[in-house]
Amino acid sequence: MSWLEEKEDVFDRLEDISYVPVIGGSIVSFTRPEMNLPNGKNLSFASNNSIFNCKTFLINPYHNKKDFPKLIMDNEIASDSIIFADSGGLQEIRLKGTPDTPEEVMKWQQKYSNIGFSLDKIPFKTDTGSDFSTWTFDSVNLDKYAIQSKERIRRALSVRTEYKKFKFYAIIQGTNYGEYVRWKNIIDQPGIDGWCCKTPTNDPCNLAGTALYALENLDKPIHFLGVGNLSKSIILFYLKKYFKHKISFDSSSYDVGSQYRRFNSPFAFNLFDSIKSEEENSINKTNFCFCPACKELREILDKKELERYIGPLISIHNVGIANMTFNYLKQIYKDKAKMIDFINVTFKESGRKKIIMILDLIDDSYKHGFNEAIKKYKNLIKEFKKTTKQATLF
Ligand SMILES: [Zn+2]
């Protein structure tokens, strides 16, 4: 049976907690068969013929509107994939216009993906600067953006025709607990299958605030947007101990391989090495590990093809290491002692203390409620501070 005709409910296939690497830029092009390695293997992680498979991934319909459907039609994408699709909503701010209507986005998503995110009116002021790091979160007019987002969700749902193969998640915007509550109360409506959450900074304390909001207020599957750092994703694994619905989170961090040739250490997830290019004549072979991407790297190390393939191969190695780490966390997340052992060997001292405190806060919040629990963690909560700059949000 082909992927397009699938009859099974997506939620029955989705794991309890899923790492969802973003298929961005270079990896999409490397999914094309003409980019295959000299031995015929495919250089992405989404294809039937990939050197390494990660069949749950996220695609952006704005950037890949035509390329990606072609890959599906040509049967390049593995038939048991679970495909998440963004909405391209961020482009509205970048381009100062709507690239696609909510109806168009929904039609694309339900045809070519399994879980699609709503096209929001993103609550940022764009007149505060010319580049995207200078936009300001518009908390004053938050309700206006939420009302427009609600209407877009309604329009998208009005053209929906798939219900088992495809699920629709609405995004909860905001920078803190109160704003999440306000936004969700406005946009909520029948037909939403799950929620997307995000956090205002890269600090794990901020993600803890969002996770605790979710634990108290959300009763459907959740997807967390842009959770690349292990110090953040580990919090979601611990949240899963109490949150009864499915959790997923996306990340594009692995692609530092293609972008900067940064190579994830196989033995310490948040350590990176740089593998230099052929011109610099200093490739560090001792870095290579046991994964399928490193095996391919070894084979082409002295060949002229190296330059062409080294970036994507490092990206795929990074996805493999992330997958291995997250698969281990899937086994242990209910066992706090094992989680603490993992944290102790993985993070530096300051990070360790903070993350273990966040696990305690999640325990207390589950037992006594968020308002009661935060009284004990005043110092930690001080870090739930607001950040308004766009650059840290996506
Ligand atoms: Zn490797």
Task: Walk me through the topology.
Blueprint: H1 10-13, E1 17-23, H2 25-31, E2 56-59, H3 67-73, E3 82-85, H4 90-95, H5 102-112, E4 115-117, E5 124-125, E6 136-137, H6 142-158, E7 167-171, H7 177-187, E8 194-197, H8 204-217, E9 222-224, H9 230-240, E10 247-251, H10 256-260, E11 262-264, E12 272-274, H11 292-300, H12 306-332, H13 336-346, H14 349-368, H15 370-375, H16 378-381
Parallel strand pairs: 1-2, 1-10, 2-3, 3-4, 4-7, 7-8, 8-9, 9-10
Antiparallel strand pairs: 5-6, 11-12
Describe the structure.
This protein is an alpha/beta fold and 394 residues long. It has a single domain, classed as TIM Barrel, CATH 3.20.20. It is 43% helix and 11% strand. The protein contains 16 helices and twelve strands. It has helices spanning 10-13, 25-31, 67-73, 90-95, 102-112, 142-158, 177-187, 204-217, 230-240, 256-260, 292-300, 306-332, 336-346, 349-368, 370-375, 378-381, and strands at residues 17-23, 56-59, 82-85, 115-117, 124-125, 136-137, 167-171, 194-197, 222-224, 247-251, 262-264, 272-274. An eight-stranded parallel beta barrel has the order 1-2-3-4-7-8-9-10, surrounded by four helices. Strands 5-6 form a two-stranded antiparallel sheet. A two-stranded antiparallel ribbon has the order 11-12. Strand 8, helix 8 and strand 9 form a beta-alpha-beta unit. Helix 8 (204-217) runs parallel beside helix 9. The longest helix is centred in the last third of the chain and has 27 residues, at 306-332. The chain is globular and about 60 Å long. It binds zinc ion. Residues 289, 291, 293-294, 317 line the site of zinc ion.
